[in-house]
Design brief:
The complex is a heterodimer of chains A (333) and B (794).
Chain A (H helix, E strand, L loop, with lengths): L11 E3 L4 H11 L3 E4 L5 H6 L7 E4 L9 E4 L2 E5 L4 H5 L2 H6 L1 H8 L4 H6 L2 H6 L5 H4 L41 H6 L3 E6 L2 E6 H4 L17 E8 L7 E7 L10 E10 L2 E10 L6 E2 L1 H7 L6 H11 L12 H14 L4
Parallel strand pairs in A: 1-3, 2-3
Antiparallel strand pairs in A: 4-5, 5-8, 6-7, 6-8, 9-10, 10-11, 11-12
Helix pairs in contact in A: 11-12, 12-13
Chain B lengths: L12 H6 L14 E7 L5 E7 L1 H5 L3 E6 L24 E7 L2 H9 L2 E6 L6 H5 L12 E3 L2 E3 L5 H6 L11 E5 L2 H7 L2 E9 L2 E2 L8 E6 L2 E6 L5 H11 L6 E4 L18 H10 L3 E3 L3 H7 L2 E2 L2 E9 L5 E11 L7 H13 L3 E9 L14 H19 L3 H8 L19 H12 L1 H4 L6 E2 L2 E13 L6 E6 L5 E5 L8 H4 L2 H6 L7 E5 L17 H28 L6 E4 L2 E4 L7 E2 H11 L14 H10 L4 E6 L9 E13 L5 E11 L6 H20 L5 E2 L4 E2 L4 H4 L11 E5 L17 H17 L12 H9 L13
Classes of the chains: A alpha+beta (333), B alpha+beta (794).
């Protein structure tokens, strides 16, 4: 019954040299295997002895997985590309500065050196009840402690709750949504290409997972189509501590402008739901209209329709409204 | 040229930078085993039964140490291990095994049957009629007398939107407060919540201990050394001479490791029990629980001012979250409020109430930092009401040399707060920057703030011990600790300067009581700089006099015919004559008696007598107690100025620039002083802006137990534009003139932020910390936030 934290329990450790070798190991070990990318989410779980995989498959020596290359008219970013390498990549910065900025906002320089894009989108939620090892719905139990009447839930969701009220912690995911990115997932010999929006799942689909990835699956790369290259973009992350923190909320947006008219748009927020949320109603409210302060204010109001705050996160509602307003305001001449 | 006032490289620098410095957990001893502790999962419980049979059968597990194996302690004193844990994380037992992995697995295999007991996290809840008490005996104790203090329903009902105020446990008053309020031109009244926050030193409180021939050898992480040895000896009921304590490097303490730590006794006792060296490596997770925290305050305050801005009356009622074992921050808070604003009359009431949250202890500027952080924005509110510039407000109310304060009419040795304010205002550019107050660019509002923060900065009467050996060098023995402040080197220079030595001719001996260390102050309360420049100056004078006497005896004439400097004792006016210090050391050994330590003065502490006696015969010994005397309390001051931008659409606060100026007497070491001023200020900024302490009220367990959830500030959180300065006026009561600096910058950094944020919000003092985006945005938008008095949220 005694609880020990900050000491990793033993496991078998594999460092496959190729993707095929990694897939073979995942296939062989099934539910016992854990895929290790940068380790920033994984090691927290391991150190706390809450997740105790028998087998850990480290992708760190598979060189091909950290490549960033041209793909058709867009880019293909290996799942193991470090966040720093994304921040420093000239083509990404030139064509998809939304992703550069999002990656730049992750944690600290040291964590960005170690953290990967694949890991950033695959990481688990940071709900502190769940991360403390409480037997909640997400952990396979039968309650949500964070939604209890007295619970400490200022960082929890205002949208998309379904028994669980945790939020997605990814800083890069909303940018990938806005850029219409796709995720390349291998399982054995089979390869699937999934829209970023479909990669993330909510608790109503499966309360124990944040993404579609299941045992045996391997996210190998993320493709960015040319569609939004050179678009007007906006990214903002609000956090408690500037140097190192998960988002309270973030917004990522891309705009195609026709003069001062919004020709097309993607507006995505994170930190408000168990998954990043693309705000299609907001997009509809601005596409075809002249960008103006009034349009921005209206977009903010549309954004918060249907939200529902918990005891301590009511501030998230005006924060979301204002972030969406600011995103649209960024294209006002 | 005197060493004092120059930048020097401290003697531990290379070891630290290269990683060769050995901290407590880096030591190994023959046959050493590891122990892990089992921590309470509940905030208050009683152990009904411990079943360790499965763990003890595991291969590699050696033994278990329970509360029954350690010296008993009477509540509210903190036990080493306990069968009635009083907070989540309280150590119940420890297990030793051949390696740490096995010890951890053994802890997980132990069943402890716990009976949950009522608990309380918020002292105001404990004061409600029928509210729970943290201890079964009550919620307050003084000299063994327990009370279950409750206020009435009426007290709570009368409070309205303010903090309830019932009968006070502690109270003092000077002047007639009610009369003063009746005559005040403006009155401000506020309710304040200052959170508790963990200390978070980089090095956790790890310890390794072993026994040989009846002596215990202990490697630990502690702020002090000579005093920690005595403290450990007390815990083990031993003669201090049978304790060898080693702590050459300490990765920070901030008040949480003053004379060692409660749990340094675990490896010492375990090692005695099993006859093998025992290492306790404390993890970050454990440090969060057993590593101490600054007590939070809930306060009600009323301040009356005249039209010209003079504070005429302060009425301050403070409720303190004392944790399970108490803290005295409340007392300092009242003293410092009186000192900083010099009201003509003041009433101070306080309720230090036990709670089932992790133990509290002094944290850098204890009591002062919290109250300055919270009262400075209220002073600003009064200034706005009176229409007085905020800098002028402080210049008007800050004390002069004739100040008396607190219930005992305490006086000061020196005070130059007004000079610090003026110098700081010039360096910061108050005149230009205060014009930005409340201005808007887009959604961002600018605010400027000032925090003036005093704290105690010295003590008197400790011993200095120096030795000039036949190698011609001066060995300065330091019983103080080495927690990153350079005190071991900086205070040694007081002895070196008396003898006119170069820094290369000085060796500092520290960190190991086997090396013979004198009786010293605890390295806390910013005492060391003041206390040990004096003590080392005294030892230096003793050594100098003995050098003169040795020369007179060896070369003829009178002692006063000789002077000391440049590594020689020489006839006055003839620097090349006389003896080298190496020769003097040889002669001192030859002459024996008081010259080489075979005869010692009676005034020194017995700890010093033993240490000096063990050095006898090795050279010329200088040893003396600081008998320079003095009257009044020793206080240093820091004023912080900050400019912030508050984003009114997100609640985000950015610190744009910060300037701090200190009055800490003579500057010993400019570079080190700057580091202290900035380091403390940044700690204060984190306290005001980001750092938190969060508990689930239903289960009584904490969440802000990782760096990323607790959010202490990092270097990337502060602006590049940091400036500092020092008034540099010597304290007239010390022969060296230096006062301490560790504590006061925290309140200055914190208050510069709380005042600047309030300024950006048009003078709206949110009166709680931390000022995170949710708190600010909820207030701007009129959204539901935390309750006005809610503690431990965020």
């Amino acid at each position: 019954m005694g609880t020990i934290r900050d000491m990793i329990a033993p496991f078998d450790f594999f460092q496959p040299a190729t993707v095929d070798d990694a897939l073979a190991l995942l296939s062989e070990h099934g539910d016992d295997a854990w895929v290790l990318a940068g380790g920033l989410d994984s090691f927290d779980w391991f150190k706390d002895r809450i997740k105790r995989p028998k087998v850990v498959v480290d992708l760190g020596v598979i060189e091909s997985l950290s490549a960033i290359s041209e793909s058709g008219d867009g880019l293909e970013i290996g799942a193991m590309a470090s966040l720093t390498s994304i921040v420093n990549h000239a083509r990404i910065r030139a064509d998809y500065p939304l992703l550069t900025t999002a990656a730049e906002h992750v944690a600290t320089p040291q964590i960005r050196n170690q953290g990967t894009l694949g890991g950033n989108v695959s990481q688990d939620t940071r709900c502190w009840y769940y991360r403390s090892g409480w037997p909640c719905y997400r952990a396979g139990g039968n309650t949500c402690y964070a939604a209890a009447p007295q619970a400490m839930n200022r960082e929890h969701c205002i949208l998309g709750a379904s028994r669980c009220v945790a939020v997605s912690p990814s800083d890069t995911a909303p940018a990938l949504f806005a850029l219409d990115a796709t995720m390349v997932v291998r399982h054995g010999r089979r390869e699937r290409v999934i829209d970023a929006e479909d990669f993330f799942i909510g608790p109503s689909t499966d309360i124990t997972r944040m993404t579609i990835l299941e045992a045996g699956d391997l996210l190998t790369s993320i493709r960015i189509p040319a569609q939004w290259a050179g678009a007007r973009v906006y990214y903002e992350k609000v956090r408690d501590r500037g140097s190192w923190d998960f988002a309270l909320e973030s917004v990522a947006a891309a705009f195609r402008m026709d003069g001062d008219m919004v020709a097309d748009a993607r507006v995505v927020v994170n930190g408000v739901a168990p998954y990043p949320v693309r705000l299609e109603a907001v997009e509809r409210s601005i596409i075809g209209s002249r960008a103006s302060e009034d349009l921005a204010i209206g977009a903010g109001e549309v954004a918060i329709q249907g939200v529902r705050s918990l005891r301590h996160n009511d501030y998230k509602v005006p924060m979301m409204r204002n972030l969406v307003k600011r995103a649209v305001r960024s294209v006002v001449a | 040229m005197a060493l004092i006032g120059q930048d020097i490289a401290p003697p531990d620098l290379v070891a630290k930078i290269t990683g060769r410095a050995k901290y407590a957990e880096d030591f190994r001893a023959e046959g050493m085993v590891f122990c892990k502790m089992l921590l309470s999962p509940m905030p208050h419980a009683r152990v009904r039964r411990i079943d360790a049979s499965k763990a003890l059968r595991m291969e590699g597990v050696i033994d278990i140490l329970t509360a029954d194996d350690v010296p008993a302690s009477e509540a509210p004193r903190e036990p080493i291990l306990s069968n009635e844990p009083l907070y989540e994380g309280a150590p119940i037992l420890a297990v030793a095994a051949v390696d740490e992995t096995t010890a951890a697995a053994a802890i997980e295999a132990i069943d402890v049957d716990l009976e949950p007991l009522p608990f309380v996290l918020d002292p105001l809840e404990s004061l409600r009629p029928g509210g729970p008490d943290a201890h079964e005996q009550g919620n307050y104790a003084s000299r063994g007398e327990w009370q279950s203090v409750k206020w009435t329903e009426q007290d709570f009902a009368d409070a309205g939107n303010h903090m309830p105020r019932g009968e006070a446990l502690m109270e003092w008053e000077k002047g007639d407060v009610e009369a003063a309020f009746a005559q005040a031109d403006h009155i401000v009244e506020e309710t304040i919540v200052h959170q508790s926050i963990t200390h978070h030193p980089m090095e956790p409180r790890s310890t390794m201990a072993y026994w040989q021939n009846g002596k215990v050898y202990c490697h630990t992480s502690t702020q002090s050394v000579a005093r920690t040895r005595v403290s450990l000896a007390g815990t083990l009921d031993m003669d201090p001479e049978d304790v060898v304590l080693v702590s050459e490097f300490c990765g920070g303490g901030f008040g949480s490791k003053i004379a060692g730590t409660t749990h340094m006794a675990v490896p010492a006792l375990f090692s005695r029990k099993i006859g093998r060296p025992v290492m306790l490596r404390v993890t970050r997770y454990e440090e969060n629980y057993i590593g101490r925290a600054r007590p939070g305050f809930q306060c009600w305050v009323k301040m009356g001012v005249r039209t010209d801005g003079k504070v005429t009356a302060i009425d301050l009622f403070l409720v303190q979250d004392s944790g399970p074992h108490g803290a005295s921050d409340w007392n300092t808070a009242g003293m410092i409020a009186d000192l900083t604003y010099t009201p003509e009359s003041m009433r101070f009431r306080a309720m230090p109430i036990y709670t089932n949250t992790p133990p509290k202890a002094a944290q850098r500027g204890p009591g002062g930092a919290q109250i300055i952080s919270m009262l400075e924005p209220i002073l600003d509110k009064a200034a706005r009401a009176a229409g007085v510039d905020r800098l002028e407000m402080r210049l008007l109310n800050a004390p002069d040399a004739d100040v008396t304060f607190g219930p005992n009419e305490t006086t000061l040795t020196s005070v130059h707060a007004k000079e610090a304010l003026r110098q700081g205002a010039a360096l910061f550019g108050w005149a230009e920057k205060s014009a930005l107050s409340g201005t808007r660019v887009g959604s961002k509002a600018s605010g400027v703030g000032i925090g003036l923060s005093p704290y105690t900065a010295g003590s008197r009467g400790f011993d200095g011990l120096v030795l000039i050996k036949p190698d011609g060098k001066l060995y300065v023995h330091q019983g103080i600790g080495n927690l990153g402040t350079h005190s071991i080197a900086d205070t040694a220079r007081a002895a070196a300067d008396v003898l006119g030595l170069e820094w290369d001719d000085v060796e500092v001996v520290w960190g190991n009581t086997a090396q013979q260390l004198p009786w010293s102050s605890v390295q806390a309360g910013s005492q060391t700089t003041h206390a040990h420049t004096r003590a080392n100056h005294a030892a230096g004078l003793d050594a100098k006099r003995k050098c003169q006497e040795v020369a007179a005896r060896a070369l003829g004439g009178a002692a006063d015919d000789y002077d000391v400097g440049g590594g020689r004792v020489f006839r006055r006016g003839r620097r090349g004559s006389g003896l080298t210090l190496a020769q003097v050391a040889e002669r001192a050994i030859e002459y024996g008696g008081r010259f080489d330590g075979h005869e010692l003065p009676e005034s020194i502490h017995t700890v010093t007598t033993v240490a000096a006696g063990n050095l006898a015969g090795q050279g010329l010994l200088g040893v003396a107690k600081d008998e320079f005397g003095g009257e009044g309390a020793i206080y240093s001051w820091v004023v912080g100025f900050a400019r912030v931008e508050v984003d009114l659409e997100t609640g985000d606060v950015e610190v744009m620039d910060y300037t701090a100026v200190t009055d800490c007497g003579t500057v010993l070491h400019p570079r080190s002083l700057g580091a202290q001023v900035f380091g403390g200020s940044i700690q204060g900024m984190g306290m005001a802006m980001t750092q938190r302490w969060v508990f689930d009220p239903k289960w009584g367990v904490s969440f802000a137990k990782r760096f990323y959830t607790a959010r202490p500030p990092g270097i990337l959180d502060v602006p590049l534009d940091l400036k500092w300065g020092a008034v540099g006026i010597a304290d007239p009561q010390s022969p060296v003139g230096a006062k301490g600096i560790g504590e006061p910058p925290v309140g200055a950094g914190a208050a510069a932020i709380t005042t600047a944020v309030a300024d950006a919000l048009g003078g709206n003092c949110l009166c709680r910390t931390p000022l995170t985006p949710d708190v600010i945005l909820a207030d701007i938008e009129g959204r539901r936030g935390f309750g006005r008095l809610e503690q431990h949220v965020g």
